[in-house]
Write a structure and sequence with these properties.
The protein contains 12 helices and 13 strands. It is an alpha+beta fold.
Length: 335
């Protein structure tokens, strides 16, 4: 018998290891999972097709990135085909670092390489995040700069994209736990996961030290304790500290140790900083200001990169400081 929801709950949820990625929400054929708020793990109706009715399933357990312990020998940067810095070849208002991820996705949408992007969006006034399925180039550019360090059950939107809207060439952008769940989908022989496997064309993983709970950080640490309103924040950046740029141009640096209560508990078990299982990994660390670090890991990722470079949507930049990436990756792994 396959592992069931009860195994997932016992091995992951009850141990405080849930990543909050939303993969179980996406793949459950009974729609038994939901993520209505900022809980440490999803809610469940207690109905499980396999455990309740003996109908073969096991999809939720199959996709969970936390059912296996972290590898002790996990590499810092991992295998790659090419390591470079790049930026968008056009203006991207509100972009994070060089806007290279937006440029890659925009080119892919415009040329039909993908028909939908599953990603994080945010309210421009409150910065409150949500997962979304984007099919419009205009909306994609408007949402550039959304903060991926906010926790959101991103993969829950895959059900909307694959099952309800029937998109067949999807790009997915997320932090390492999302990438790990996607790898499990791609490698699984579970028939219930085949529609998702067939539909995911590109996976872009984002460098991540940890994910923050919006309510705890913004409404608590920033608004109540420091009297900073969300609309005053122009830029967030996490590079060993939380660096804020406010609308009046002032900057504020907050050590991550001061924000421990705002970090999702499940992040404590993750040692992957550079999204080792992605087609392309991306982040600001290792590149000069105004550029994005890109780690091209697979032939699929290389194909998307080359096409975006050829059209000028993406342009390359100065050499990468690999040691800077390795330092932060090692720091996360140790912590």
């Amino acid at each position: 018998m396959a592992k069931t929801y009860h195994d997932l709950k016992r091995e992951v949820w009850d141990e405080g290891r849930c990543a909050g990625c939303g993969a179980c929400v996406a793949v459950c054929p009974a729609d038994a999972f939901s993520y209505p708020g900022g809980e440490s793990h999803p809610r469940h109706t207690e109905y499980c097709k396999e455990a309740s009715d003996g109908v073969p399933c096991g999809a939720c357990y199959e996709v969970c990135p936390r059912v296996l312990p972290p590898r002790a020998d996990q590499p810092l940067v991992g295998e790659f085909i090419r390591l470079l810095s790049a930026k968008a070849g056009f203006e991207v208002p509100g972009r994070q670092s060089g806007g290279a991820v937006t440029a890659l996705l925009l080119h892919a949408l415009e040329t039909g390489l993908v028909d939908a992007v599953v990603t994080v969006t945010e309210d421009p006034w409150t910065h409150r995040p949500s997962s979304a399925v984007i099919t419009s180039s205009e909306i994609l550019v408007t949402q550039a700069g959304s903060r991926y360090n906010w926790w959101v059950p991103l993969m829950a939107a895959l059900k909307e994209a694959v099952i309800r809207k029937k998109y067949h060439h999807i790009a997915l952008v997320g932090v390492p736990c999302v990438v790990q769940a996607t790898k499990r989908i791609r490698e699984s022989d579970n028939a219930l996961l085949r529609p998702f496997n067939r539909s995911i064309r590109l996976v872009i993983g984002l460098f991540c030290t940890e994910s923050f709970d919006y309510a705890s950080l913004v409404e608590g640490k920033l608004t109540r304790e420091r009297h900073i309103e969300p609309w005053q924040i122009r830029r967030f950046e996490v590079k060993g500290n939380l660096d804020l740029t406010l609308s009046d141009g002032t900057t504020l640096t907050i050590p991550l140790k001061d924000l421990e209560g705002s970090v999702r508990p499940g992040c404590a078990t993750c040692t992957d900083f550079t999204a080792l299982d992605a087609d392309i990994s991306a982040g600001a660390v290792g590149s000069e200001a105004g550029y994005t670090t890109l780690i091209i890991r697979t032939p699929v990722g290389e194909g998307f990169l080359e096409q975006a470079l050829r059209t000028g949507r993406l342009v390359t930049g100065p050499a990468i400081d690999r040691k800077a990436i390795e330092r932060l990756a090692a720091k996360k792994k140790k912590r």
